[in-house]
Design goal:
The complex is a heterodimer of chains A (279) and B (291). In chain A, 68% of the residues lie in helices and 0% in strands. Chain A has helices spanning 2-36, 58-66, 69-100, 106-116, 125-134, 142-145, 152-162, 167-175, 180-191, 193-209, 212-217, 226-231, 233-236, 243-267. The longest helix of chain A is centred in the first third of the chain and has 35 residues, at 2-36. Chain B has a single domain (39-287), classed as MetI-like (MetI-like fold). Chain B has helices at residues 2-9, 11-38, 55-62, 64-96, 103-115, 118-128, 135-142, 158-182, 186-194, 199-227, 231-235, 246-255, 260-287. The chains are: A mainly alpha (279), B mainly alpha (291). Chains A and B meet through α1, α3, α4, α5 and α9 of A and α2, α4, α5, α6 and α7 of B.
Chain lengths: 279, 291
């Protein structure tokens, strides 16, 4: 009898703990959405924020007059999409080489790749700015894409997956006269599609949310990515941008990634990003 | 001749990994070496850099802003290591627990913060922590506490930054730890239950030892993430340098007041700290005989 009571208590504790966690996770986002549809006249302080009397889209309209949203949106989408596709391709290619080929220096080179994860590119930001200026890439979206075409982390994760692709498959393809690249493209890539998909979602999130590099490399309002524009909202309307407008801006930035994430969840039945970090 | 032969024989794999090394060379290695060079000059961004020996490093030792930034970042680092590891393990264990209802919903919902942009969340947290209009103070007042000047006093300014950083990053480490938990064979637990081990014992004797490698990996990642923290402290900046992170200070010296030489010496400091921490962690790990 005592055991059963304990069992129920434990179940209650687990579920209540998780409900609290979920509330903490979701609350700031819901709170933001609530304020972004309040009229400028309404109070937003404290608990007042949660009472919506007359929902309005005025804040979003005001936002469009403050910053060139369409330009910024295009810039964000361009860097995110092109950046993700190129990264995926080059990381998978390198991961394939490290996982499925034996060549002199492979293990040392791979250790080197892993070691570079410890030093962040940010530490060299000052000369990087000079290099970009010399290449004429300041104010160009390519400055955000090119340096991260092949990242150590991406190579590391995708290699883990490639290791599981059976060697026999690749040998058979070789005997059939397949070229190295077509083995990668036609045989390995289709097998590791789940890994590619989860790595792609992680990259999309990282690129869309990127702030430091666009802040550094872009310095014209219509060249900004959405993230930079939104971060500057508090000072873009004199110093008195209403909270409603600022939070309308953050809503525009955050909602698309949440919607995309939920959409991805529907497709990946096995659920979430756990696949990307397989041991 | 020999090298050429090898290169030709293994042309494909070398070609496949070439892009990484090329990009690393141009956009990481050269900049870091170059940073080292600039750090010995008083370059202001225009004209030729003038060599000035160790002047920057002498200045750096006595700069109270640098000391502040180092203290702040160390506090962020240590607190984040503890908070992230403890909470991530707790959430991951709950997600794995057979007692949890609606697991898929909880999985989806607890990952959501990681999807949200840290800069945008910074603006939102700035409002939540506002001294007069913020919800946090409203809650404190309603339970009978005083209003806390979160972002206007140097005493409290680090707390919102820590909360924001952890709020956003914990889901990521939860997923990593959760997937590591799923890889532990369930027979271990069944055998332990048969032997009469309590759940606490099972956690400390089975789960934790088996998670060790993954936790080590997490700690390394957290370390790098914290030391290059920028968005959180930049959007939630407190008075003066009260919650400035080291990397944010580098940015401000370099691109706001254009003391590029001095900022480069700070970058070198950051690189040395990161290298020292990772080497130390590997040595500790090796002493345990695990690598």
């Amino acid at each position: 009898m005592k055991n059963k009571g304990q069992e129920i208590t434990k179940g209650v504790i687990v579920n209540i703990f998780m409900i609290i966690v979920v509330v903490i996770c979701l609350f700031p986002v819901l709170w933001m959405c609530a304020i972004s549809i309040k009229t400028v006249g309404e109070k937003v302080s404290g608990f007042n924020a949660l009472v919506i009397n007359e929902p309005t889209l005025e804040n979003f309209k005001h936002l469009f007059t403050l910053v060139p949203i369409w330009n910024n949106l295009y810039n964000s989408l361009f860097t995110t999409i092109i950046g993700t596709i190129t990264t995926l391709f080059f990381c998978a290619l390198a991961g394939f080489a490290f996982a499925k080929y034996r060549f002199p220096g492979r293990d040392i080179l791979f250790c080197f790749v892993v070691a570079t994860m410890m030093i962040s590119a940010e530490a060299g930001a000052i000369p990087l700015f000079v290099i970009m200026r010399k290449m004429g890439l300041i104010n160009s979206l390519w400055s955000l894409i090119i340096p991260r075409i092949a990242t150590a982390v991406g190579i590391f994760y995708l290699r883990q997956y490639m290791l599981d692709v059976p060697d026999e498959l690749i040998d058979a393809a070789k005997i059939d006269g397949c070229h190295d690249f077509s083995i990668f493209y036609k045989i390995v890539c289709p097998i590791i599609t789940p890994a590619l998909a989860s790595w792609a979602s992680i990259t999309v999130i990282a690129r869309w949310n990127d702030y430091f590099w666009p802040l550094l490399f872009l310095n014209k309002t219509d060249k900004y990515t959405l993230m930079v524009s939104v971060a500057m909202l508090p000072v873009s309307d004199g110093l008195a941008t209403p909270w409603q407008t600022i939070l309308a801006g953050t809503t525009i930035v955050i909602l698309p990634s949440i919607i995309l994430y939920l959409f991805m969840q529907l497709f990946q039945k096995s659920g979430n990003f756990a696949g990307a970090v397989k041991g | 001749m020999n090298i050429m032969k090898t290169l030709k024989k293994y042309r494909a794999p070398y070609l496949f990994i070439l892009p990484f090394f090329l990009l690393f060379f141009v956009f990481q290695l050269i900049p870091i070496v170059w940073t080292g060079y600039i750090s010995f000059t008083n370059w202001k961004g225009l004209g030729e850099p003038q060599f000035c020996g160790l002047d920057n490093y002498r200045l750096l030792v006595n700069d109270y802003m640098v000391l502040d930034a180092l203290t702040n970042t160390t506090i962020y680092w240590v607190s984040s290591l503890v908070i992230i590891i403890v909470i991530s393990i707790a959430i991951a264990l709950c997600l794995q627990s057979s007692r949890l209802k609606f697991r898929h919903f909880f999985q989806t919902a607890t990952f959501l913060p990681y999807v949200c942009a840290s800069v945008a969340m910074g603006l939102i947290f700035g409002m939540l922590f506002d001294e007069n209009a913020g919800l946090i103070n409203e809650i404190l007042v309603s339970i009978g506490w005083d209003r806390v000047p979160w972002l206007t006093s140097s005493k409290y300014a680090r707390i919102p930054v820590i909360i924001l950083f952890n709020w956003r990053i914990i889901p990521w480490f939860t997923v990593i730890i959760y997937s590591a938990l799923l890889n532990i064979p369930s027979d271990y637990y069944e055998a332990a239950t048969v032997d009469g081990a309590s759940e606490f014992q099972q956690f400390f004797r089975i789960t934790l030892p088996l998670l060790k490698n993954m936790l080590f990996f997490c700690m390394l990642t957290i370390t790098v993430d914290v030391w290059k923290m920028f968005n959180e402290s930049y959007t939630l900046s407190g008075p003066g340098s009260s919650n400035t992170s080291l990397f944010q200070l580098i940015y401000e010296y370099a691109f706001k007041i254009f003391r590029l030489g001095y900022a480069s010496s700070l970058s070198m400091l950051l690189i040395v700290i990161l290298l020292a921490i990772s080497i130390l962690q590997f040595i500790l790990k090796r002493r345990e005989g695990e690598i």
